[in-house]
Amino acid sequence: MIFLDNNSTTPLDDEVKYHMMDSLAKNFGNPHSNFHRFGLDAKKKSEESRSKIAYYFNTDPSNVIFTSGATESNNLMIQGAALKAQNNKVNKNKILCSAIEHKCVLNAVEFCKRLGFETEIIPVTKEGLINTNWLAENIDENTLLVSVMTINNETGLRTNVEEISEICRKFDVIFHSDIAQALHGEKFDLGKRSIDAVSVSAHKIYGPKGIGCLIFSENPTKFIEPILHGGLQEQEVRSGTLPVFLTTGIGSAFEILDRNFINYREHSRKLRNKFLSEIRNFTQDIYPNFNNDIGHPGTVNLYLKDVDADMICMRLGDKVAVSSTSACNGLDFEYSYVLKNMGFSKDIAKSSIRLCFGRHNNIQEAIDAAKLIYEEYKFIRENL
Length: 384
Hints:
- The chain has helices at about 15-25, 35-55, 70-85, 105-110, 130-140, 160-170, 245-280, 310-315, 335-340, 345-350, 365-384, and strands at about 1-5, 65, 95-100, 120, 145, 175-180, 195-200, 210-215, 285-290, 300-305, 320, 350-355.
- By secondary structure, it is an alpha/beta fold.
- The radius of gyration is 21 Å and the shape is globular.
- The chain has 2 domains: about 1-10 and about 260-375, Aspartate Aminotransferase, domain 1 (Alpha-Beta Complex); about 15-255, 3-Layer(aba) Sandwich (Aspartate Aminotransferase, domain 2), CATH 3.40.640.
- The strands form 3 sheets. A 7-stranded mixed beta sheet has the order 2-8-7-6-5-3-4, with helices on both faces. A 3-stranded antiparallel beta sheet has the order 9-10-12. The chain has a two-stranded parallel ribbon with strand order 1-11.
- The longest helix has about 40 residues, at about 245-280.
């Protein structure tokens, strides 16, 4: 079976697994116990990972906050910023996010309405770009936070984050970006201060599930207050005992990505392009909705004319792993709200699938996947 659902998750890298197993065996101490060797060794291991991540993003290690993943990171950023503004009686009561954000961002922003905040959804073009004219007209001195992802998890398209950052700077607005899908296409330098905070998940970069980070350009306490209450272990903004083997995993994942970044990016791009050329040889009725050369190098949002996306995903279930929408949309049936919010028709939204090539895939799988998808497409068109 060919795994092409790398936007939803990635296989655990063997080197990452090795380091995690070693940590599980050796670092069972509580990293917050500072009076004995077991705790100190565990703390040292986690701090090594924190430093690796900080180095990758050119920020101070104290600006790296470990979380359970990007969902928690996004909630911590959005709710945490709202709580800090309220508690400090800051006269900023507006929060903005784009129409194509991950559900955890959209729902966290929606939750802030209960706290008394005004919220707005920024429209997005069919090219996946944020409508900066709308943003410039609707952002003001009362705006606290803007949250816009860098690369969308369904389309693979890159947003115009540089323009958004400039607009935010003019009004002294916090700018946050979910970059969980962007790490395969580009590197981020938080030292430039163009983005105040970014969210990541280890399992999107061949690390383990259950660990992520919220990473700041400056001291986290400048931007947020905790939404989990307890010992306040993470710079006093996130409580809970650190899972040392998971922090080891995400640190190793970033170290491997840094070492092989260009090779991994070009490998995924090569496979994606080979897949698309094979599909074109079979039919003109299957084609990509977007040309995302500057976005995620391995992602394809594929339109299959007159075929239900969920139907073909199910028929491919034991052959090729693909999906019709984000894996985080839940169990309820839903066509892609991302495509619909970009202005595409329901017919296109319900006939589009998402697939993504990764570092573990090969050319033969790209060829085979194209053939298998076409065969199932042809079968559905002729028989169902």
